[in-house]
Amino acid sequence: MSCRILVLISGSGTNLQAIIDACKTPDYPGQVVGVLSNKAEAYGLERAANENIPTTTLSHRDFESRAAYDQALMAAIDTYQPNIVVLAGFMRILTPAFVQHYQGQLINIHPSLLPKYQGLNTHQRAIDAGDKEHGVSVHFVTEELDGGPVILQAKVPVFDDDTAQELAARVHEQEHRIYPLVIKWLCQGRLLMRNEQAVLDDVPLPVSGYASDD
Asked: Which of 55, 140, 195, 204 has a CA between 20 and 30 Å from the CA of residue 43?
């Protein structure tokens, strides 16, 4: 039986597209059963509609508190009965209750080599710091913002004359490569979170994730 993947988005959905495309390949063990956005104008909803994937829009502006929104969000997600919940540019800070509800099933992709540059504007921050390499991290979501155990990272060079936009484009290419791979591991049952640590094939991963020197 195919693993059921629910994707949360707020914007254009390029990572969503990469996941959808991966699910079309032979022997991929999962399928996107739904896409949920907090913004009705998110282009990712069109990407889903083009593939006949059901969508839900739930605006945070319709709720008086973050906790109330997250309760409604959980109810909406659970109607899809997902095995995995994937954050793909979902621009919301999630409450502890939400994170605990999906503990071990909830993953995020963040455009930096965590633990560096948690939060926003990561590409410009890497340039401003004079970093020679930058990248992207896929991690389990915990109550600490961008702080859950890293599963996999991909690195890109930072060139002296880079703009944030150029660096972001380089990072995006790697995002689209590693996110479907991590989701595949989860669907296969090879990946789990144990004692606040990512574990692949029963081997605890180091702080920087699997094969971080590749």
From this structure: 140
Query: Does any domain span residue 16?
Result: yes
The domain of 84 spans 1-102
Q: Which of 101, 110, 123, 139 is catalytic?
A: 110
- CA 129 remoteness from chain centre: 25
The annotation status of 61 as a binding-site residue, yes or no, is no
Residue 130: how many CB atoms within 10 A of its CB?
8
123 flagged as catalytic: no
Does 13 show up as a binding residue in the annotation? yes
Report the number of distinct structural domains present in the chain: 1
Nearest 10 degrees: Cα torsion 197, 206, 107, 111: 140
Distance CA 157, CA 167 (A): 8
Does the annotation place 47 within a ligand binding site? Answer: no
Q: Report which DSSP code applies to 94.
A: P
Per-residue pLDDT of the chain (214 residues; tens, 9 = 90+): 689 999 999 999 999 999 999 999 999 999 999 999 999 999 999 999 999 999 999 999 999 999 999 999 999 999 999 999 999 999 999 999 999 999 999 999 999 999 999 999 999 999 999 999 999 999 999 998 888 999 999 999 999 999 999 999 999 999 999 999 999 999 999 999 999 999 999 999 999 999 744 4
135 belongs to a structural domain? no
